[in-house]
Design a protein that fits this description.
The chain has helices at residues 9-29, 35-46, 52-59, 63-75, 97-121, 123-139; strands at 79-83, 91-95. By secondary structure, the protein is mainly alpha-helical. A two-stranded antiparallel sheet has the order 1-2. The radius of gyration is 17 Å and the shape is globular.
């Protein structure tokens, strides 16, 4: 079935996102993690020490979901939560050594999946799409945090 030209970019992005989520679910399932849990662990591993709500903002999930994922990952020993030094209401997240090790393995698996997708899409096409999406997100005000000092 061919894709019609009248399908909006929003719908195309949703479909592509679901396809990518399936790859994420597959990679995480071997470790007993859901796709959202793996995404959350990945952000904590990449940007350690930020406030819990920052990770929710990065992944565009609500505070309740961010709290649930943090609690689940903490229970699995993959992250630790620490109270803020200036504000005890603030919760900062750090990966544990086990969390970093697991994320490293899963990141390799995801990288292998990306190579496969890139091969099917063609390297220039995939790279161009990624660059356009990064610009689009930046123009919409989405950004990644700075690592706290």
């Amino acid at each position: 079935m061919a894709l019609n030209d009248d399908i909006s970019i929003g719908i195309l992005l949703q479909i592509a996102g679901r396809m990518m989520t399936e790859h994420l679910e597959t990679a995480g399932s071997d470790a007993g993690l859901s796709g959202p849990q793996l995404s959350f662990l990945g952000m904590v591993a990449r940007f350690p020490g930020n406030a819990q709500m920052t990770y929710g903002q990065i992944l565009s999930i609500n505070k309740m979901s961010a709290g649930r994922y943090a609690a689940q990952l903490e229970e699995l020993g993959l992250i630790e939560r620490q109270r803020g030094t200036r504000d005890a209401r603030e919760i900062r997240l750090l990966p544990t050594p086990e969390g970093l090790a697991l994320f490293g393995k899963l990141r390799q698996r995801l990288s292998e999946m990306t190579v496969s997708m890139t091969a099917r899409a063609g390297t220039p096409g995939y790279g161009e799409l990624e660059a356009h999406l990064r610009r689009f997100l930046a123009n919409e005000g989405w950004s990644l945090p700075q690592n706290p000092s």
